[in-house]
Amino acid sequence: MRKPRFISILLAGAMLFCQAVPVPAAAKDYTEGEFYSWKYRNYGDHIELEKLDYTGQVIINVPDEIDGLPVTKLGHNSIGAGIYIKEIHVPEGVTDIGYCAFMGAPALETVTLPSTLETLGDSVLKGCTSLTEVTFAGGVRYIGNNAFSGCTSLTEIELPEGTEEIGGNAFLGCESLETITIPDTVRSIGALDYSGTAVVGGTAWFNAQPNGVVYLGKFAIWYKGGRDTASDVTIADGTLGIASRAFLYQTQIDSLTLPDSLRYINDRAFPSEPGLTELHLPHDLESIDMTSFAYNAHLEAFTIDEDAPHFAVQDGLLYTKDLTELVAVPEGIRSVELSDKLSEIPDCAFQSCKWLESIALPEGVERIGAGAFSGCDVLQTVKLPQSLKTIDTAAFAGCSAIERIAFPEGLEMIGDAAFDDCFKLREAILPDTVTRLDINAFRNCRALRKVRLSAGLTELDSKELEIVYDPIPGYESGSEWISTVQYDSIFGDCYNLKTLIFPKEITRVGAGTFVDMNIQDTWYTGTPEEWMLVMQNDQPNGYGTVHYGYDESSDLPGDLTLDGELSVLDLVYLSRYLHNSYSISAQAFTNADLNGDGEVDVFDLGRMQQMLTA
Question: What dihedral angle (degrees, nearest 10) is formed by the CA atoms of 99, 104, 105, 111?
Fold first, then answer.
């Protein structure tokens, strides 16, 4: 069958590492007004300009105040592509120019920016093909992504002292740009995902650079000469930083020398390096992104001088000097003992560590960050601490070797796709402290056979997906598209789920939460009447045999089903357990161990038969 094409999607949750959480609409903390051709927002102590009603002006002088209040911001697309605009003057006091504010103005030649400016937003001057002059009166902390891209008439630019960040593709395609000056205050030069080009790609300046490492100011920004052409790389003395993705496409690097002058290493700066197993970091390094060496599958350890002022290394991992924060993990690490001073595992910390088989998180860790262990496909054993509160978005997504994981009492949240594609995970026994369980949390856990839901939950959410199939002529009859409804749910595609423990505290189940599953038994802590109320939004026939009155505190000998009585049903499920077709809780095990020998076996089965016939 042809793979479905998603035409209209009502989607719950969010993409990896980026979770959308609905928030109630906040009351406006501003009033709206108009000043000549400007629409603005008045926040009581300052003004933010929203939109210019363009009527053909050639020169735009942005007002510095309205009604006695200072103008501090130009909103996104606030001026836009006025076809006759030649000059824009932004006054002192403005600190923020929003994304696309002047984008695509075809006649714009000069822009004057104030010394108070801190942020020049994404794509703010993108595509202004007549722009020849940008004057900065002072420092601007952040230059956004694509800020000047496509300004084909711009021949030179000098960023002011105080600039700290330059966004991805900021000067991309400025084909006439011959002179680019950046200050030593720059700490970060970005790159856009999959752009495959330097921040200044396509400029006359970049085209004139020789093959090898390309430097913009004191930043190494690219390796010129084609992909996979570098083997031995030595970064020049005096270099302060390495730009985002600077060497990402040089997968044959087997020798890397970093100078003592280096202070900043930006995200995904380096690729997989087959010959590089250990890397010594510069003594005075100030910042390194968690993903700087994200694709180095053979890098097993970092080292750094013991007297380095900002960082320390323990067991090959890079930490802040006091060992309280994990900074960078070499992807080729095989085993590790973490610092006992950690309070969280950062986002993406161990992402795609291909050789890591087991890990024990120390007590004190309260959060496992988004994608922290995602893609660790040989990780089998994970010990979670009792202090853990949050397992964030996609934290263990793709950990296809994990079979069992014990969730500690005190755990409160399991995020979207947290265990997505954990193909071998057999059980999810959630403590009653869990109050948030996001959609897709256990999606596609194909081996999942038993789930205990938390009494701390009040509902199980789901969303509908409209799937449209576009038939291939000759393979499917008819010419109309075929539309069907599927569901995005917490346990989506867990087709082998057999046993569900369901607390009465959950009073709502989203439609399709357990659709198309093969649940055999649902153990419900409430009454049949309560169950029917819960099933108002879902199909009650998708839960197998529903057993009412389930009570995990029951200590009645022989009560394996925990319903407060000894019956033939306990005998049936004990037989299933002995045939490895049913799993039991610790209390059920204790109740089933009728001869008290610490095992549940055929002798206990015989004893149960005697008790039932006595």
Answer: 50
Question: Mean of the pLDDT values across residues 552-572?
Answer: 89
| Type of residue numbered 378 | V
Domain that holds residue 567: 551-613
Q: Is the pLDDT of residue 310 over 90?
A: yes
CATH of the domain at 265: 3.80.10.10
Picking from 101, 96, 36, 88, the residue whose alpha carbon sits closest to that of residue 62 is 88
Nearest to 300 by CA among 270, 335, 345: 335
Q: Examine residue 63 and state whether it is found in any structural domain, yes or no.
A: yes
pTM for the predicted model, two decimal places: 0.81
Give the mean model confidence (pLDDT) for residues 420-434: 95
d(CA 531, CA 228): 62
Cα distances from 46 to residues 49, 66, 73, 93, 241, in angstroms, run 10, 9, 9, 10, 37
Confidence of residue 22 (pLDDT cuts 50, 70, 90): very low
* Residue 258 CB coordination number (10 Å): 18
Please state, rounded to an integer, the average pLDDT across all residues of the chain.
89
Cβ(266)–Cβ(188) below 8 Å: yes
Instruction: Give dist(CA 20, CA 396) in Å, integer.
Output: 19
Among 516, 543, 559, where does a domain finish? 516
Overall size of the chain counted in residues:
614
3-class SS letters over 256-283: EECCCCCCEECCCCCCCCCCCCEEECCC
* Strand 119-120 versus strand 96-97 pairing type: parallel
Q: Do 190 and 105 share a structural domain?
A: yes
Residue 571, CA atoms < 13 Å, CB-side half-sphere: 12
The answer to whether residue 334 is domain-embedded is no
Structural domain includes residue 601: yes
Task: Tell me, yes or no, whether 565 lies in a domain.
Answer: yes
**Phi and psi, residue 531, nearest 5°:** -60, -45
Do β-strands 219-224 and 212-216 pair in parallel, antiparallel, or remain unpaired? antiparallel
Contact 546, 519 (CB under 8 A): no
Cβ neighbours, 10 Å, residue 404: 13
* Of 288, 395, 379, 272, the residue nearest 334 (C-alpha): 379
Reduced to 3 states, what is the DSSP secondary structure of residue 219? strand
Q: Could you give the count of Cα atoms lying within 13 Å of 237 in the half-sphere of its Cβ?
A: 0
